Fold this protein.
Amino acid sequence: MSNIEDPALGGTTPRRRPKPEILELDGRRLRPSTLMMGHGYDPMLSEGALKPPIFLTSTFVFESAAAGKRHFEGVTGKRPGGADGLVYSRFNGPDQEILEDRLGIWEDAEDALSFSSGMAAIATLLLATVRPGDVIVHSAPLYAATETLIGRILGKFGVSWLDFPAGATPEEISAVIEAARAKGRVSLIYLESPANPTNALVDVEAVRDVRDRLFAGEEDVPPIAIDNTFLGPLWSKPLRHGADLVVYSLTKYAGGHSDLVAGGVVGAKKLLDPVRAMRNTIGTITDPNTAWMLLRSLETLELRMTRAGENAARVCEWLRAQPQVERVGYLGFHEDGSRQADIFRRHCTGAGSTFSLYLKGGETEAFAFLDALKIAKLAVSLGGTETLASHPAGMTHLSVSDERKRALDIGDNLVRISIGIEDPDDLIADFAQALRHIV
């Protein structure tokens, strides 16, 4: 990689990003789908390679002692913002930094961080935000591992929580946050929308308005973080609606090929600086090879999500007319005038491709349907090129108590389906023959 003179560092330092970046052309802001092809990378810094190489190295050579000192001032938090140069692969690397540049583009975020998994992203965020005695307010349901992390793991260290249902009204949200304030310092408001696996939407604007009203004039205001994995970054952009930080399992749509595990957080740099410092300490950064694979996947993100969304609309329209189906929890089917329809209209530009299918019956009928699938694969996860189907009550949410599952509408008759990019008529044929196995 070429170098540039930097007198402040006493010599030269690796130049990791192209200068200047092209974000506009003839007064037109370039679209994310265009920027995914080259943003954050200069081929001339890597022997003219069209695509970024995979930088499989654990450490980087400093140009001078002064440069090394300044980089470590950033890494250790003595100077906010992270290292100015490449230091060590637990902190940063070329592939990871290019990836983070591109992740932020989708939501016009000020900063972005990548992690070794979605749960690594969530855990690092929580560890950087909460302290003993704090209270976390969250929407419900959440992904089961997130609930376990908050309720069981952080609970051991004196952190408590209160929740409100995903579709809660402003009055209900306000009541829960006020009750949380009575218990202790509210350090974080954590949302998941649509909720996993029910597909219920959270009114992010209402949460922001309630938070701003209750904490008006106070210095210690809890940030709003939201897991946007189901709809983002194409169909929902929560930073526009009041969220401060947006969390992703990049394993899902961003990766999109069911061949990697990664996570991300995007948002305000001021809020991400302590998260970055925590990541530097506990080593939850994405590895170079995974970061490189994500760069590949981001190039086709819009194409894949668009096709999967179109397929889901056709499949769900067919499914809800079938006699074996009780109802389909698809975001495109909300009743006009309902609260969920109102949230969808204000927050979303598409209904997504992951939905909840409630069959008539219980576990026996759900298992018969799942075991009969031929094209759709019986597997957890979502957002891949292939169609996946799973049984939340017996799989991803098995650790959730039966009482809580009943309260959150996670019944034995619920099947979660993530539609891929196959031919939609073939998928309908597969679901048709599988439904015939329900007796």
Observations:
- Residues 98-298 form a domain with the Aspartate Aminotransferase; domain 2 fold (CATH 3.40.640.10).
- Residues 301-319 form the longest helix (19 residues).
- The first strand starts at residue 3 and ends at 6.
